[in-house]
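dude i think i finally got it to work??
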Amino acid sequence: MATTLAWGETALVTMTLGFLVNQFTLDDAIYGQLDGVGVLDGNLEGIDVTEYVKSVQLRRGRSSSLDNFEAGSATIVLNNNDRRFDPINDASPYWDVSTNETGVQPRRQVTVSLADELVFVGSITTINIAYNQDLSDAIIGASDDFVLLANQSVTTTFTPPVEVSGTRITSILDLPEIDFPTDQRNIATGGKDLQALAIDAGTNALQYMQACATADQALLFVSRDGTLTYTDPVSTIWYYDVAADFVDANEPITAGVVPYTGINTITDQTFLYNKVVVAKEGGTEYISNDAASQASYGISTLTLTGLLLENDTDADALSTQLLDAYKEPVYRFDDMQFVVNGMGSNSRTTLNQLELGDGIKIVRTFATGSPLTVERYYQVDRLQHTITPSQHQVTVGLGDLKTVIYAFILDDTTFGTLDSTNALT
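look at this
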């Protein structure tokens, strides 16, 4: 059962260790009944291992807004003094006597929940056992299903039709050699049509789908509940879709507002691009330049060629879009840090419910200087949790600013003007 941590937050860690249960057994009064609890191949049930957990580290996301999302990962340290998690211990409660094999194996599912919110779902990738005299730790490494997709490939060359990106993603997932579960995916329609180019045998499934996302400027990641997620193109967000407001301790903490412990800012040339070159596969290169920026900072080029886009007009529009976004160095917030221990339950829940790609608002107040208050909107690019018996720390990494759209309000001095951020619908 879930464990209540010292500061009141509940935590639950499960792993599908052990052996098959509920397996159909011929002539058995319980498991031999058709439409009963017996399953032909049996199933593995998640075992609560929370009482043995010494620490949990989770990381999901990407390094920057121009990168692909990486596989989410977990490192869970377990008390192994009784050797229950040691794969060679045939006295372990997770040893399967029917097969004479350990039930502590790679590819077994791992889940981590905080305050009844799933924050990680993945599978075991590594099992390391450390011994110090009679004391022992089991260090379990786990990753989400990106690792599975990264090891799957197209087996037969085929040429899909011209189709919108979400349909192309679905066609890859539906291939017999991929066969990704339909109940573990959430694939949006997408925005751009992709070319009818041959997909060669041996093409890596994950890399190809990431190429689809790059062409469409959409997001592809595994969500906190283990769902493979593909979004529509990321550009604007309505004000009512902002997932959370974050403020520093100097601001009043009201309903729906979460205080952060620390925040970093950055102004650099990492994302300064004043020349952008974009081309679809086999298409014309579209080049967008900003002469003023080039005169001030020198020429810095971002190149995206060989895209799967069908239409040259989409490539042209993308070059303009990226130039507008990156032609000037921008003062921006980079990471937020939280110590969850002192938070109320509502703030903890809001933080644990955050998802990659969520739009959020950040407010920072200053004791001196001008302006005294800064408000910015960002996208969640990274989420990290570090949990020990004494503390829960969270880092939220911030991505490119989203344009926030507000409803048009007649005669309002702010929202009564039709422009890029005030819209009728």
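The radius of gyration is 25 Å.
im so relieved honestly
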